[in-house]
Amino acid sequence: MIGIAVPIVFFIVFAAIIKILSDNKTKRILIEKGMLDENVKYLYGDRYDYNVPSSLKWGMVFTAIGLAIIVGRVLGNFMYDSDQITIALMFVFGGMAMILYYFIAKKMNEKAESQK
């Protein structure tokens, strides 16, 4: 299992680094040529424009994962494979926290745009 997971993680990190570098190169070229307009600012700007703090997202995810560990350990006392249940609950609760964050961020963005 680790023999498969390690190359996958390295590939994902490598792909993220390549994307960041290519985006920075593209931005630099556009700035040098003076081709900045509203469309380019929209493409490379922050999507939420600081209306929604990212700490909210990570706080929700880590709280959900902690809650999943607690629930998994409590359920593990009654079941045989408590480690597998705990890991599954971590993914489920973390995913639910991200979905909940999406709706909260959407609502906060709509509120901020209506106040502009």
Describe this entry's structure for a reader.
The protein contains 4 helices and no strands. It is mainly alpha-helical and about 120 residues long. It has 2 domains: about 1-45; about 50-115. α3 (about 55-75) runs antiparallel to α4 (about 80-115). The radius of gyration is 20 Å and the shape is flat.
Helix content: over 70%
- What's the main sheet like? none
The pLDDT mean sits at 80
Number of domains: 2
Output the structural class: mainly alpha
Low-confidence parts, pLDDT < 50 over ≥5 residues?
none
Strand runs, count: 0
What is the N-to-C order of secondary-structure elements (H for helix, E for strand)? HHHH
| Count of alpha and pi helical runs | 4
- Gyration radius, in Å: 20 Å
Features:
single chain; mainly alpha; 4 helices; 116 residues; 2 domains
Chart the SSEs and their pairings:
Elements: H1 2-33, H2 38-44, H3 54-76, H4 82-115
Helix pairs in contact: 3-4
Give a quick summary of the entry:
With 116 residues, this protein is mainly alpha-helical.
